[in-house]
Amino acid sequence: MTEETGKTQGLLAQAWLILLLAGLFGSSLAAVEIVLGPKIRENKRNETFGQVPRLVPGGSARKSREVVLGGIRAIRVLSEEGKHLGWVLPASGQGFADKIELLVGLDRRAGKITGLYVLDQKETPGLGDYIKDEGRFRKYFRGQPAAEPLRVVKRKPRPGSGEIKAITGATISSTSVCRIVNDAVREFRAALEKRAAGEEKE
Q: How many CB atoms lie within 10 A of CB 10?
């Protein structure tokens, strides 16, 4: 056997080993998803409903219900007495490092943002991950109009102006959150308008 043939056989053996390890790793991940996936989804649902009273003041996690409007999943937020107070809208999109998952609180007519919660994120620790901090970032969303897109600014924002103060050193993460909120709210408002138009025609 020549030296070249020996090298070729060695490379083939390494390639088969890599394929075998990749297959085992993929199978392990699939098994974890099968076993833990339902529990992870249940925990995320419980966390979502647990945020309802914080995202829509007066809302009841117990009374509120999931609905689908125009293909968009949302939570119709009700008070303990059954009065419709607003909506909680799950939203997600690409951040600086990875996917960001949000919950957006809206009033009954989806005309005003009543709160924001970061359900999952993997942004840079000590910088972009401040998107989950109420005092540094999330507080700026509360009370903002939902009819117009939010804008990121580096100075102190004017209340109710649609301006969101960027996190220092994490403008991309800040802008990503605003984009995710803007896209989700725009689509949801359009779905609400279509439903209202359909109800008026009936």
A: 10
Using one digit for the tens of pLDDT, what is the confidence trace for 117-156?
Answer: 999 999 999 999 999 999 999 999 999 999 999 999 999 9
**CA–CA gap between residue 60 and residue 53 (Å, rounded):** 6
Whole-number Å distance between alpha carbons of 5 and 9: 6
Averaged confidence pLDDT in the chain: 88
H or E element: which one contains 102? strand 99-107
pLDDT at 196: 83
Q: Is residue 110 part of a domain?
A: yes
Rounded to whole angstroms, the Cα distance separating 164 from 14 reads 53
Q: Please answer whether residues 176 and 96 qualify as being in contact, where contact means their C-beta atoms are separated by less than 8 angstroms.
A: yes
Parent domain of 173? 51-201
Strands 65-69 and 113-120, how do they pair? Answer: unpaired
Neighbouring CB atoms inside 10 A of 179's CB total 18
Per-residue model confidence (pLDDT) at position 55: 97
The string over 55-84, giving b where at least 16 C-beta atoms fall within 10 Å of a residue's C-beta and e elsewhere, is bbeebbbebbeeeebeebebbbbbbeeeee
The reply to whether 39 falls in a domain is: no
Residue 25 — pLDDT band, cuts 50, 70, 90?
A: confident
pLDDT computed for residue 158 by the predictor = 87
Give the whole-angstrom CA distance, residue 140 versus residue 160: 9
Q: Does 40 fall in a domain?
A: no
